[in-house]
Amino acid sequence: MSQKENKTTNQTSCGSGNCTCDKQDGFDQSMNKKTGRRQMLQKLTGGLLAGAGLVNSACSVTATDNKKENAQLKWEEFFKGNYRLMTADEKKETVNRLQRLYELNHGKRIDISTKSPVKDVLYGYAFNISKCRGYMDCVNACVKENNQDRDSQMQYIRIHEMKNGHFNFEESDDDFYHEVPAAGHFYLGTQCYHCENPPCVDVCPVGATWKEKDGIVVIDYDWCIGCRYCMAACPYDGRRFNWSTPEVPEEEVNKKQHYLGNRLRKKGVTEKCTFCIQRSREGKNPACVEACPTGARIFGNLLDPDSEIRWVLDNKKVFRLKEDLGTEPKFWYFMD
Amino acid sequence: MKQLKIFFSLVRDALDSATKGNTAYHIWMGLLTVLMLTGAYCYSKQLNEGLSVTGMNDRVSWGLYISNFTFLVGVAAAAVMLVLPTYVLKDIDFSKAVLIGEGLAVSALVMCLAFVTVDLGGPARAWHLIPGIGLFNWPDSMLAWDVIVLNGYLFINITIPLYILMKKYQGKLPHKRVYFPGVMISVFWAIGIHMVTAFLYAGLPAKPFWNNALLGPRFLASAFSAGPALIILALEIIKKYSDYTIEIKTIRKISLVVTVAAQINLIMLASELFKEFYAPTHHSSSAIYLFFGLDGKNALMPWIYTSIAMNVTATVILTIHALRKDLRWLNVACVLLFVGIWIEKGMGLIIPGFIPGPWGDIVEYMPTWIEVGVTLGVWAMGFFLFTILVKAAIPIETGRLKYEKLGSQ
């Protein structure tokens, strides 16, 4: 029965709109079907819950228009699909809803991009161990750029202080609080490595995390159910969880956002470094690269033979961490 | 239509039977209700504030909930040890225990699903898991596999006993050709649920402590000792407080299953200890932390030694025939095994898997009171359900409760 309904919806949408598709492929078909079923669920549960008074403010006469709109938008947001399966129109709709919601609650505009991967781009990162001095400017820039929770002091980057003569993480310290660089020590940063074979992506039961065409491993924060299986699967401590509702002071919110990047998260979902997707897809360097005062961080397009990252890979003796796990990180270390 | 009418009558009669009992019974159920309400209060706090009210953090991202989930999958799977001989080998001894076993499996599975749900950061978004309207990452994710096998096993373990009870309720004999295929599937399925749950952990190269081929078989061995141990205790309580006769022969046979499984479990433990400590590598650091502590941190040491002491003592008691045949000693062994394996699956397996973290840092884990409250609530819910199921099934099984009687009353 639902298939029949879907067919009719498809036909009308194709007939009325300026639809560019002349033939549906399997992906579109399954996607449309999913949306159809979900809408049915939305209507069904909507009907059920309305009686229970859960959408009280949406129907109430006394509630203000803003409150009504707020509840309506939240309701629609709850039933949206996985970002990967959204059409361009659906992406636009959810972005509009999210921007409107922020405006309603904070009185300010945010700009959420849905920019797709740029063609012939595969991002890679290199870290110069000789240059890092442990100043932590990268960490601070990252927190500001990516709207991370200030309460729990969430950080994507960890800087490990290692004793000279050892390359041993177990003896290193990633929670130091003293003047840097400390004598007899060197520094090394870790973060999400955007693996070519990311174990975190395989384990996600709902497909809320995936690798984009430009190699960035992203999370759909609104699709994540918070089971934290990805955190257990990551060998590099690349993922963080919002144990409480993340708090970012209003004046510090970075309003230039990407759907898969630094937009504000909710409680109970995982997040991680996205190579600052909101910057990198615009052709800029990630915040950590820009903030590093010593030039220890190099970022670029691996497919561009003239890029700095390619120069490093071609001319320096590079290595990666835990290569035995076969994850193929796109994050290399080297020394001068 | 007629079947539906019989079904509703059965439910009515069963509820009637489940709500009647002596004072001790009402105190028991009242106590469970209080625990469930406390659990619900703790869970509401967790829903409001987030999982930050638990002892978990970015370094130890799974805790008491997932530990209990893992243990209870084993308890659910163990019901098969009673199903197999009853239906397949036609061992009449076990047939009375099998309904209890399946009731236990259903209760354990409901607890499993509850523990996974309370562990979710966004339980409201759990519908993303439903194939069709959500996006089910199958066959890649072992968690997706687990969702399938657990729900499938729950379905099997509800339908088979329901069919048998429906028939007996009408005073008829259940047809073997109807329930037998289901029983055969459930036998393989039970092994499946525990293997899949083990693969959930064993499939993570990021956690060397879990990434171990012995994990699945060891899960089975420990489950087949802890699960039937609980059944023995349950059978004795039922025998004491109801008119349901359970022959001593039945308990003897189940205790033999427990004994062999507990012995195999210890052999596997020895094998793991040898591998971790004869030539310790970087990958042994979780085991070193667990058994000896690392960097002066050793919060799990008391747990693991308690667990091993309990397991060894219980296995010794069970292995000595004279002691195993003495019901008092058997009960002691069963309690020791159940608690010992519960610790082993949680504080001895799930938690140390996260310690030390990927970059060697040691963050210890201790559950908070809220976490303990939710956990006790879920356990109380499981016992509550089990008690109702048993209380309803026994009069039907013994023939005291029949469909015809409804008309004459």
TrEMBL record, chain A:
It comes from the Bacteria. Residues 215-244 form the 4Fe-4S ferredoxin-type domain. PROSITE patterns: 4FE4S_FER_1, 4FE4S_FER_2. Pfam families: Fer4_11 (PF13247). InterPro entries: 4Fe4S_Fe-S-bd, 4Fe4S_Fe_S_CS, ET_IronSulfur_Cluster-Binding. PANTHER family: PROTEIN NRFC, PROTEIN NRFC HOMOLOG. This is 4Fe-4S dicluster domain-containing protein. It comes from Agaribacillus aureus. The lineage of its organism: Bacteria, Pseudomonadati, Bacteroidota, Cytophagia, Cytophagales.
From TrEMBL, chain B:
InterPro entries: DsrP-like (IPR054823), NrfD-like (IPR005614). It comes from the Bacteria. It is found in: Cell membrane. It is a multi-pass membrane protein. Keywords: Cell membrane, Membrane, Transmembrane, Transmembrane helix. Pfam families: NrfD (PF03916). Gene3D superfamilies: Formate dehydrogenase/DMSO reductase domain. The chain crosses the membrane at residues 25-44, 64-85, 97-122, 142-166, 178-204, 219-238, 250-270, 303-323, 330-355, 375-394. Belongs to the NrfD family. This is Polysulfide reductase NrfD. It comes from Agaribacillus aureus. The gene is nrfD.
